[in-house]
Amino acid sequence: MERREMVFKLLGLGGLSTAATALGFWLNGRSRRPEEPAPSTLKRQFTVPADPGLPEMVIARGGEPRQLVRRAIQELGGIGRFISRGDVVVIKPNIAWDRAPAQAANTNPEAVAEMVRLCREAGAKTVIVTDVSINDPRRCFARSGIAAAAQAEGAQVILTDERKFREVDLHGELLRCWPVFEPFLAADKVINMPVAKHHSLTGVTLGMKNWYGILGGERQRLHQHIHESLVDLADFMRPTLTLIDAYRVLVRNGPSGGNVSDVALEKTVIAGTDPVALDAYAAKAYWDLDYRSMHYLKLARDRGLGNLNFENVRSRVAEL
User: What pTM, to 2 d.p., does this model score?
Assistant: First the structure.
C-alpha cells in the first residue's frame, strides 16, 4: 500500500508540473507584445466626373466671403454636382495658426461656414471640419473663428488628437508610410479650402500645400524635399472640390504671418476641379510668379494631377 501511495503521489506531482509548464507557455503567449499592424494601403480619390459643359475653374470676386462661395459653387454646377444625400463630407480649411481672421494665416471662417451650409443643404449625413494644426489646436480653432462659425451651421468640428492617426502607405514616389488623421480616411467627399498665402520655400502655399494638414509625425522633415512631398500628398488626396480663399491674401511673411500690413484685401474665391490650374492662377494673380517654372506645379502636371497652363482650362469670372 505504501508503494502504491508513493506512485500516485509522484504521478500527481508530475501532473502538476505538466500543468504548470503548460500554464507558463499559455501565459507567455498571452503576455507577448502584440505585433504592429501593417500600414493601411488606402489610396482614395474623391473626385466627381468631369462635365464638359461646365467650367473647371471659377473666379468669383467683389463680394463678401459667403456670397463668393455661393456664387462660385453655383457657377460650377451647384452643390448637388459634388455632394449627394447621405455623404460624409470632410472640409479641410487651413487652421494651422493661432491667428485672427484679419491676419489671413487661416481660411476665412465665414467661407468655411457657407461651405458647411451648402453641404448640409445638399443632404450630407455628416459635415466634418478639421485640420492638423501647427500651433495649439484649441487656440487655432477658436481664434481663427472657424470652430464657432462651422458649428453654428451644424458641422462636427474635430480638433487634432494624437489617438486618431493611422499609419497609411501613401504610395508616393518619396512618401511611403505616414500617420494620417482618421477623418480623412473615412470620408465620402473631401473639400479642400486653403487660404492664399506667401511661403518662403515654395513661393506660395495654396491648395496642394494644404494637404500637409492631414499628416501627423515629424512634418518638418518633409521640407527637405518639399516639392516632391506635396505632390505625393496631392496625388494621394484628390479632392472633390477645391476653393482657394483669396478674400484676404497674405502676400508677405507667410505662412504664419501676424502683421495685418502684410495682408491684401482681394475679395475673391477661386474654385474648381483642377487643383494644378487653381494653384497656378493664384500664384500668377497675387505674386506674379512664373508658374510654368514652379517646381511642384511642373511635377504635379507630369504626375497627371491637372493642367499647369490655367489659360487652357474652361474658366469663368463671376463679378459680384
Answer: 0.87
Our count of domains for the chain comes to 1
Tell me whether strands 203-205 and 195-199 are parallel, antiparallel or unpaired: antiparallel
In a domain, 30, yes or no: no
Give the span between the Cα atoms of 293 and 290, in whole angstroms.
6
DSSP-derived secondary structure letter, 37: P
Four-CA torsion 128, 181, 206, 197, nearest 10 degrees = 90
Q: What angle do CA 9, 10, 14 make, to 5 degrees?
A: 120
> Looking at the domain assignment, is residue 36 inside a domain?
no
Asked if the bond preceding 93 is cis, omega within 30° of 0, the reply is: no
Residue 282 lies in a domain: yes
Say if strands 156-158 and 126-130 run parallel, antiparallel, or are unpaired: parallel
What distances in angstroms separate CA 271 from CA 70, 86, 115, 228, 282, one per listed residue?
Answer: 11, 23, 12, 24, 11
Question: CA-based angle 280:130:199, to the nearest 5?
Answer: 35
**CATH number of the domain residue 274 falls in:** 3.40.50.11440
Enclosing domain of residue 106: 59-319
Place of cell 500628398: 233
Q: Which three cell numbers stand for residue 102?
A: 484679419
Q: Quick check: is 66 in a domain?
A: yes
- Grid cell at residue 309: 497652363
Q: Which residues, 6+ apart, have CB-to-CB distance to 149 below 8 Å?
A: 109, 110, 112, 113
| Residues linked to residue 57 through DSSP beta bridges, in sequence order | 272, 315
pLDDT digit of tens for each residue in the chain (320 aa)? 455 554 445 445 445 444 444 444 443 444 444 444 556 556 568 999 999 999 999 999 999 999 999 999 999 999 999 999 999 999 999 999 999 999 999 999 999 999 999 999 999 999 999 999 999 999 999 999 999 999 999 999 999 999 999 999 999 999 999 999 999 999 999 999 999 999 989 999 999 999 999 999 988 888 889 999 999 999 999 999 999 999 999 999 999 999 999 999 999 999 999 999 999 999 999 999 999 999 999 999 999 999 999 999 999 999 99
Provide the CB-side half-sphere exposure for 291 (13 A, CA).
Answer: 24
